[in-house]
Automatic annotation (TrEMBL):
Protein name (record): Fibronectin type III-like domain-containing protein
InterPro entries: BXL, Fn3-like, GH, Glyco_hydro_3_C, Glyco_hydro_3_C_sf, Glyco_hydro_3_N, Glyco_hydro_3_N_sf, Ig-like_fold
Domain Fibronectin type III-like residues, every copy: 650-721
Alphabetized GO MF terms: hydrolase activity, acting on glycosyl bonds
Alphabetized UniProt keyword annotations: Glycosidase, Hydrolase, Signal
Presence of the UniProt keyword Mitochondrion in the record: no
Signal peptide: 1-15
Domain of life according to the entry: Eukaryota
Keyword Ribosomal protein: no
Amino acid sequence: MFLVVVVLLLGGGEAREAFACDPKKSGTKGLAFCRTWLSIEERVKDLIGRLTLEEKVNLLVNNAAAVPRLGIKGYEWWSEALHGVSDVGPGTKFGGEFPATTSFPQVITTAASFNASLWEAIGGVASDEARAMYNGGRGGLTYWSPNVNIFRDPRWGRGQETPGEDPILAGKYAASYVRGLQGRDGNRLKVAASCKHLTAYDLDNWNGVDRFHFNAHVSKQDMEDTFNVPFRMCVKEGKVASVMCSYNQVNGVPTCADPHLLKTTLRAQWGLNGYIVSDCLDLDCGPFLGAHTQNAVNIGLLTQAHVDGALANTLTVQMRLGMYDGEPSLHPYGNLGPTDVCTPSHQELAHEAARQGIVLLKNKGPSFPLSTRRHRTLAVIGPNSNATVTMIGNYAGIACRYTSPLQGIAAHAMTIHELGCANVACADDKQFGRAINSAQQADATVLVMGLDQSIEAETLDRAGLLLPGRQQDLVSKVAAASKGPTILVIMSGGPVDITFAKNDPRIQGILWAGYPGQAGGAAIADILFGTANPGGKLPMTWYPQSYVENLAMTNMAMRAQPSTGYPGRTYRFYHGPVVYPFGYGLSYTRFVHTLASAPKVVSVPVDGHRHGNGSDIGNKAVRVTHARCGKLSISLHVDVNNVGTKDGTHTLLVFSAPPAGRGHWAPRKQLVAFEKVHVPARGQRRVRINVHVCKLLSVVDRSGTRRIPMGLHSIHIGDVKHTVSLQAETLGIIKS
Ligand SMILES: *[C@@H]1O[C@H](CO)[C@@H](O)[C@H](O)[C@H]1NC(C)=O
Ligand SMILES: *[C@@H]1O[C@H](CO)[C@@H](O)[C@H](O)[C@H]1NC(C)=O
Ligand SMILES: *[C@@H]1O[C@H](CO)[C@@H](O)[C@H](O)[C@H]1NC(C)=O
């Protein structure tokens, strides 16, 4: 062991002292909670048994106090790693040997890749870098990421942090990213993730209503089939080590003080193995529990058993992280250090993630991609044309380096650069003349427009969906004047109503880059010049401005209400006009799919005890809890042909719609699976997709009960349609 320590000191600079159970301290290393061969449960019990009430209380807050008597150091629970290790949260301190970390695209951009292995890979890099910082004494091991709230209203300032508007997409993202952060080593955690914010939180500050005071009125139906879905998948499939409850109330009860939500749903039904963070719970993000718990126990509002229960949850996570295992360099990740941060392969993954997330929205002609032979000089215009920190969005850290759009394009062509507007607010047209002039001289024009954190952010919801200030005017004037093709690149988290550009024949191409991360400019240039073929798809609906004009952000209902004119929300419930639909995104090649095989009839085994015989349930919807679900699934084989001339990656989005006549229960369609496949030009690939019947073909009735409608379900994959008939097969009366 001595040798290992010496090597580390030489190789990695500052080596971390043990958090607890230091083998060099004879007085404490022999305590039972330090014995790694005992079960974590036994060790936690032993530790709690040794703590005084005062010591316990001081462990209930994010900056947990040291217990020097037992050789335990203080611990800061609050770190963030939304898309790379972030400097938000006091647990992470950039500087010294750790000046920067790899800054991946903002989550809404990465979601557009629809690539679950990419999400896990990003989580894996973030947790490598987090472990390296922890080993160097500059980071924590508990990360309050990801944010998987549904992007319900397009104005939400934090929509950028989320994987979009669809519950299944958000749930898959949650499970994959959490696996990346936590590792796949069973009970052992690489770092502990936290899915936030449970639940129905997606309003920051709108029209005088803020998140701290907002009481979200949510129906049981919307709760079950929309707001809670990503959290359930995060806990059940991702096995997350923590959940954070939200600021708001739901139906009059603060989520952080709702025993039904936290005890019944989250712990008992979903089986959370971990801690719940925020007010009044296992761990308080703030000083409140530290200041008031002792008194609450004294006057009988709380018992020591409550305090012990909370500590068992937090200490178990610390033990799973290996914090009580003694010598830190012997931990499986104990050898990660400064040279494991911002490595070339990590930075390449940030670049690759941006390439996979960028969405091609328009390609008239087609006039894309540009050619370095014909387009030698490009006018690069717009307030985001030389963006750096704007590209990493919020909950970011300090990036290893940046490639701005201007720098990315300059690697392929000569550039003439003009901002056009001083900033994204674009209050005046003073610089328009110069921008127009540059477009008249160049072989092609790229306008990089959009938003930044001054327009959409935490505590700042957007007022509307149009481009800010005079941006639209700049784009139209430049497009009218430019000598060559004009391409519009939108940088934004939320959707933007760019109907004007969609309809303008002078604008040949449109790209949505989201907030594409530290290498965003290089990825934009890869797509512009065709060194990468775009495959991203929108993870949220792009609505016209008229959609929000009379729509209260505070109305949480997902379903449309024709009687009041309420339009409903997201592609699942809103039928009206859109600028671009959920799932939209073009490629430089063309894909055709055909269904190779799919079942026409699937029988669903149902317990008979509450149904009498089979025939009376033949046309109804069976409760999921009465079906023998197991692995019952529909297996589809789809052939994807690339009929174009360029290699490309295709995303199959599989939607289902339940039998007609279930209108008030069901979304008009629901994403049930997605699969990404690379197909060379003129090539074909067969893709197998499994759709779990109970989880994915069920719908939620008005009382919040999940049921499987029997009858004809239609499955859509692009323009391929298939119907499958579900038939209940009663297993006979079971006497209880
Ligand atoms: C998904 O992302 C991973 C990681 O970047 C990549 O290796 C893989 O090729 C991607 N899948 C497809 C089909 O493009
Ligand atoms: C672009 O941004 C980089 C980094 O902030 C800066 O060094 C450079 O001068 C900018 N280029 C122009 C032409 O403004
Ligand atoms: C099943 O139940 C229906 C309605 O309750 C009844 O008409 C029918 O005869 C029953 N069939 C059998 C096989 O018991």
